[in-house]
Design brief:
This protein is α+β, with helices and mostly antiparallel strands. The protein contains 20 helices and 23 strands. The two termini are 23 Å apart. Bound molecules: zinc ion.
Length: 647
């Protein structure tokens, strides 16, 4: 289970969809690059914790960055020096590295942690309270040292999943260092210094220290308030962007229709949907450890870290107007490139414009339903059947290294400042400490890198569409609808109650450091931080669904600003661990299901078929519906996939 916790946290937990045609090396017998990549990254943390011992050996064994194989294809027009090859990334001969994860926990003794109480499930239930049809409260006392209560936004079905996880953990008496259920994780966060608000969204599940789906806000004016890499996640500024087009499914990308020398009659016939999936796969590098095709220098990396999307615009990889439609305008003011380690920058040098692995994807989607016409119109979405592109990825190895570097330094800072934790994965530093400020600056810089990464992938996607449809991206009106983060911490102003446990207490405006991990900012109409065209409808929050089902655009609300610090869900959220998915689901069944839905797909890793199957995730519609019913965001547009590429 611990393996899955960290794996999930690493590649973030948004949703995706898949499949239909499956182009990979089916003969791979052992671990693939994806799995090795994850382990290499996990080992990176462990090796760092072990003062660097074994790290080179681990990377050598994993082969994650050195043993991939490529099958060259004619990729057509692309960026300098030309788009990447079709990726066929198997590493059948790599030696499986010996797990060393346990050692990480056993060798680090410096930080004092308060053991979790050994309560029974029935005893735990006494601290849980349903306070509304969509809100479940974890009261003080559920775990030691809680400073405030914590609330989960759930419906009845999602509540059952949470409680089942809690019961399973209690019944099996799982080692608390290996697995902590999401309810206890959010309670542990509510015990951290300076916490003023702790919530979880309906797609909540257990993560690294902080549960995925957590919103944790800390008082910037409290000298003891903390910042934590675990509250952001290892994939800093993992996020989602949506690009619209003026193409339609019916006219431009119909299912099963062949074009070429004549439908179904000539050898040159191709299925346009398959061609599009292949073109995206040819243009956008995918897979863990896969290098990018956009050449950048060391000084470019510094520029990207400092200036975010501005760099992409100046270098021709983004349109000028894209900037307005990125959260924070694609550039965090708190960024300082000098606080990012040389090792992190080196990892970032080769990965700009790459999708990565796990649950990251680029999808061609179709507008399936317009629920809020005014909101949809303001986003340029005018009809059912309209084609859009959704991209989900983050800051790649650079962001992971920033988190790893910070965790090492924060362990020392916690010992110095006497910070006590319920769980050592909550490793943190006071916001105002040198370590806290350095992490804030480095994390913000990594967030800038992620915006440039998504911008460069957009550039490649625009080129792929141009090749397939023989029109310019401008002619196809491939404008950015919006780009949101779902793994980040930012300083924001919010109205909070003076006494969070007294519903009658007064509200006051506070500067908060809001950690959103697997949750999305969703600011209301008329907020100064959202683009002018969306002032009347609120900020779009982009929610990736599960494989073969659907995604949503939600709009931020005034109620959400008050209730959840302007936050909503980020995706479906896992219901099964990756191991459990592989063991319980049948790959062929999943493929047939997707083929029946006319979804074309290219993947670099066949295990993703079961790992990312709809059954592996919570029902995204139920997650979105719960957010809608709770009033923290409202449904605007529903989309479904027709072509997918994944790492
Ligand atoms: Zn993500």
């Amino acid at each position: 289970m611990a393996d899955d916790i960290r794996t999930d946290d690493t590649d973030c937990e948004a949703a995706e969809f898949l499949y239909c045609t499956y182009i990979t090396n089916k003969e791979a017998k052992e671990e693939d690059v994806e799995e090795h990549g994850r382990r290499a990254r996990d080992k990176s943390i462990i090796a760092d914790a072990d003062d660097g011992k074994n790290k080179k050996e681990i990377e050598k064994k994993s082969g994650a960055r050195t043993t991939k194989t490529e099958t060259e294809t004619n990729a057509g027009p692309g960026p300098r020096p030309g788009p990447s090859a079709n990726v066929n990334v198997y590493n059948a001969n790599a030696t499986k590295p010996k797990p060393r994860r346990r050692k990480y926990y056993k060798t680090k003794k410096r930080i004092q942690t308060t053991p979790l109480s050994t309560t029974t499930y029935e005893e735990d239930l006494q601290f849980l309270e349903k306070i509304s049809p969509t809100r479940y409260r974890v009261n003080i006392g559920f775990v030691p040292n809680m400073r405030i209560h914590a609330d989960v936004i759930v419906n009845d079905d999602l509540e059952k999943l949470l409680l089942a996880e809690l019961k399973e953990a209690n019944d099996s008496q799982m080692d608390s260092a290996s697995f902590i259920p999401a309810l206890k994780q959010m309670a542990n966060v509510a015990a951290l210094p300076g916490i003023v608000k702790c919530l979880a969204m309906p797609d909540v599940h257990s993560g690294y220290g902080f549960c995925i789906g957590n919103v944790a806000a800390f008082d910037m004016d409290d000298a003891e308030a903390i910042i934590s890499p675990g509250g952001v996640g290892f994939d800093i500024n993992c996020g989602v962007r949506l690009i619209r087009t003026n193409l339609t499914e019916k006219d431009d990308i119909p299912a099963g229709v062949l074009v070429g020398t004549g439908e179904g009659t000539g050898t040159g016939d191709v299925n346009i949907r398959e061609s599009l999936a292949q073109a995206l796969f040819d243009h956008i590098p995918v897979g863990v450890g896969q290098d990018g095709v956009i050449p950048i220098t060391e000084s470019d990396v510094d520029d990207i870290l400092s200036r975010g999307v501005d760099w992409a615009i100046e270098n021709g990889y983004a349109w000028e107007e894209d900037k307005e439609f990125c959260e924070e305008n694609g550039r965090m003011d708190t960024a300082d490139a000098s606080k990012v380690s040389a090792k992190a920058k080196k990892r970032g040098l080769s990965q700009i414009g790459t999708l990565g692995g796990g649950n990251h994807y680029a999808e061609v989607q179709v507008v399936d339903e317009i629920i809020d016409e005014a909101a949809a119109t303001s986003m340029g979405i005018t009809k059912v059947g309209q084609i859009c592109i959704m991209i989900h990825t983050g800051s790649r190895g650079l962001g992971h290294q920033v988190a790893t570097d910070a965790l090492r330094k924060m362990d020392k800072a916690m010992a110095r400042d006497g910070i006590k934790l319920n769980d050592r994965q909550l490793s943190c530093a006071r916001i105002q400490s040198v370590e806290g400020q350095n992490y804030l600056a480095a994390m913000s810089a990594a967030a800038n890198y992620a915006w440039v990464n998504r911008s460069c992938i957009t550039y490649l996607a625009r080129r792929a569409f141009e090749k397939v449809f023989d029109k310019t991206a401008e002619e196809m009106e491939m404008n950015l609808v919006y780009d949101v983060c779902h793994n980040v911490a930012k300083i924001e102003k919010h109205q909070v109650q003076v006494d969070p446990d007294d519903t009658d207490s007064l509200f006051q405006e506070k500067n908060l450091l809001v950690h959103r991990k697997g949750s999305t900012r969703a600011f209301p109409p008329n907020h100064p931080m959202i683009p002018t065209p969306y002032q009347n409808v609120g900020q779009p929050a982009l929610i990736g669904g599960t494989m073969g089902t659907c995604s949503y655009i939600l709009m931020g609300t005034k109620d959400g600003m008050h209730a959840t610090c302007g936050s909503t869900c980020h995706g479906a959220g896992r219901a099964l661990s990756r191991n459990a998915s592989r063991k319980t689901l049948n790959k062929d069944d999943v493929l047939k299901y997707l083929k029946d839905k006319d979804i074309s797909i290219r993947v670099a890793n066949p295990k993703l078929v079961t790992e990312e199957a709809p059954e592996s995730y919570k029902d995204v519609s139920a997650v979105v519906e719960t957010c809608h019913d709770a009033g923290i965001s409202t449904k605007a547009v529903k989309l479904r996939p027709i072509a997918v590429i994944k790492g």
